[in-house]
Amino acid sequence: MRVMGVDPGLTRCGLSVIEGGQGRQVIALDVDVVRTPADQPLQRRLLTISDTVEHWMDTHRPDVVAIERVFSQQNVSTVMGTAQAGGVIALQAAKRDIEVHFHTPSEVKAAVTGNGAAGKAQVTAMVTRILALQQKPTPADAADALALAICHCWRAPMIARMAAAEAQAAEQRKKYKARLKAAAK
């Protein structure tokens, strides 16, 4: 499975692509950070991110995109910008019919370090070790994008099993309701 990991942001947006193999084997294919100047209008910044992501998706052809879910921060304008960048990325994936999954920072940290409250240095160190990189990915946005891709690769089998179980439960619920309706007549 080829996973594109994205750490969304307006100033720095981390992008990565990894290939998942047998078990927990993962290989880094590419990593970079898209930067946009803070003094640029919002629509220009989002266009830069969109164009770059579009190029990455067309070049790397990921099977799935894993994006960090923004759920709480103190600075509302930062949250809005991050969410807007994530939305632009999800839109580019939707245009290509690429599946998108969102993971919280604590899910990502727990997946790569075993600790959902791990610091950036620990995440970077584990990403470097897991991918057998010669040097630590910098800035932290690059390491976070790789961590998101790793997290999704490792969680994908469980996500698929959960979706199958939910579909089976929905089908059983539908049959049960049909039986109840038939018995009531």
TrEMBL record:
Top EC class for this record: hydrolase
Entry annotated with the keyword Hydrolase: yes
Cited InterPro entries: RNaseH-like_sf (IPR012337), RNaseH_sf (IPR036397), X-over_junc_endoDNase_Mg_BS (IPR020563), X-over_junc_endoDNase_RuvC (IPR002176)
Organism the protein comes from: Mycobacterium talmoniae
Species classification: Bacteria, Bacillati, Actinomycetota, Actinomycetes, Mycobacteriales
Protein name: Crossover junction endodeoxyribonuclease RuvC
Localization annotation: Cytoplasm
Cofactor or coenzyme needed: Mg(2+)
Subunit structure: Homodimer which binds Holliday junction (HJ) DNA. The HJ becomes 2-fold symmetrical on binding to RuvC with unstacked arms; it has a different conformation from HJ DNA in complex with RuvA. In the full resolvosome a probable DNA-RuvA(4)-RuvB(12)-RuvC(2) complex forms which resolves the HJ.
HAMAP family per UniProt: RuvC
Record's cofactor remark: Binds 2 Mg(2+) ion per subunit.
Gene that encodes the chain: ruvC
